[in-house]
Amino acid sequence: MKQKEKTERWYWIWVSGPESYLDGEGNELSIDSKSNSSSLDGEWTCHPDTKKGDLILLYRSRLKKDIGYLIQAKSDAYQNPNKRQVKNNNWTYCCDCKFIYKFDITLPLAEMKASHYLSKNFSALRGNFQKMAYYVSPDNWQRLNKILARKNPSYEKVLAKMEQSPMAGEIWLEEHLEERLAADLKPLRKHGYHLKLVERQLVCLGNSARIDLLCYDTRKNCYVVIELKNVRAGRDTIAQIANYIMWVKNFYAKRKRVEGLVISGGSDIAFRNTQEFGKYKIHQLDIETLDLK
User: Fold this and answer.
1) Quick check: pTM over 0.85?
2) In the predicted structure, residue 81 carries a pLDDT above the cut 90
3) DSSP states of the chain
């Protein structure tokens, strides 16, 4: 497979077992329509050619045997040092992703096999979805999505919007916010932070996580882990940034104090009720208070 240009979007099928799409009680994980977020969002194994903005359909193997979600890659593929080396070292790659849409009426394996065209031309189907990721040609992508849109009327508008934009709106805004702060942290001074950037998109070795911005506060003499959210911060955000803080404390800070800062589109009650996580301080700022231009 040839390397694609940075500006070219590619399409993929990812294959995942029930351990990834079911919760502890066997229920399907969903997307919160209010916050437009999902516990499925985060780091997923991918093909090394995956680029930020690529679109993915998730095939759910074993129990479901269907296409159940639309996903967008939030980052380029990066080599994950936490994964065990396997025979095909392509699968030591992963990327950050955003779950965009959950199909109410999915596309089952049997229905794909019944399609004369797909059964002959769709490599993932011919391979019985045995690999972890498959490139999907634009023609096959259109055929699959035409079937899914017919089954799920609201999906057509979602897909059209995704195809027109290089990134999902909330992902684009988070990327823009990260770019803005990485270039200039001065807007945080009026909130008591005097920061210099240490690392951006820092991969936490052994922790399967990436920190948006790791900074050092020159007045407080402590590290500050910054997590960016275009949506409201919730309980999951607390657990996420606390995980980052503990990693920095254990592997990076060398006895320096570590604090957390969530910059988000507000916060919910669950976040505010759990803002003190053990001995670590976690603060939250609304994006609109930063006066970013």
Assistant:
1) no
2) no
3) -PPPPTT---EEEEEE-HHHHB-TTSPBP--BTTTTB-TT-EEEE--TT--TT-EEEEEETTTT-EEEEEEEE-S--EE-TTSPP-SSGGGGEEEEEEEEEEEEEEEEHHHHHH-HHHHHH-HHHHTTT-SSEEEE-HHHHHHHHHHHHHH-TTHHHHHHHHHHSSS-HHHHHHHHHHHHHHH--GGGGGGT--EEEEEEEEEETTTTEEEEEEEEETTTTEEEEEEE-SS-B-HHHHHHHHHHHHHHHHHTSTT-EEEEEEEES-B-HHHHHT-EETTEEEEEEEGGGG---
